[in-house]
Amino acid sequence: MNRWLSVSLIAFCAALPGCSKMGGGSTQSVSVTTPPANGATCNLTSSAGTFTVTTPGNATIAKSMDNLRVTCDKAGFQHAAQTVQSHISTASAGSLTADGIVRLGLDAATGAIYTYPAQIVVPMSRVSGPVASAQ
């Protein structure tokens, strides 16, 4: 009987509009800046993959329960890195109806329940020491 109930809830949920998009889908857009180093190349890495962006810029990344590791490089600047925390989306966390619980499970499986900050700022520092001048 419990199995029948589970299958029924999944079928019911599938019939609802936007069921598997409760958390907003399995990808999201993030903006990455690297003050004062415009033009830096940044890699955004999680268990869902690695995504590359040139700053300032936007990247569409796959959502994941894992934190996002951001590493940025640009000539004349020190390598910069930071970890961006993954959070459970407030849109997903608020629904505890029967169909909401099923959707919550589906969103957790696809990563749609998780979100990263929309703006990621990775400050970069100039390389210290003498800089060779172009002659």
Task: Compile the SSE list and pairings.
Elements: H1 2-15, E1 27-33, E2 41-46, E3 49-54, E4 57-62, E5 68-73, E6 80-84, E7 87-88, H2 90-93, H3 98-110, E8 114-115, E9 119-121
Parallel strand pairs: 1-9
Antiparallel strand pairs: 1-4, 2-3, 2-5, 5-6, 7-8
Helix pairs in contact: 1-3
Describe this entry's structure for a reader.
By secondary structure, this protein is α+β, with helices and mostly antiparallel strands. The chain has one domain. Helix content is 23%, strand content 32%. It has three helices and nine strands; from the N terminus they run αβββββββααββ. The strands form three sheets. Strands 3-2-5-6 form a four-stranded antiparallel beta sheet, with no helix packed on it. Strand 5 and strand 6 form a beta hairpin. Helix 1 crosses helix 3. The N and C termini lie far apart (82 Å). The N terminus is likely disordered.
- Helical percent range? 10-25%
**Strand element count:** 9
Multimerization state: single chain
N- to C-terminal distance: 82 Å
Secondary structure class reads: alpha+beta
Element-level helix/strand string: HEEEEEEEHHEE
Question: What's the short story on this structure?
Answer:
The chain is α+β, with helices and mostly antiparallel strands and 135 residues long. 23% of the residues lie in helices and 32% in strands.
Key traits:
elongated; 3 helices; 135 residues; 23% helix; 3-stranded mixed β-sheet; alpha+beta
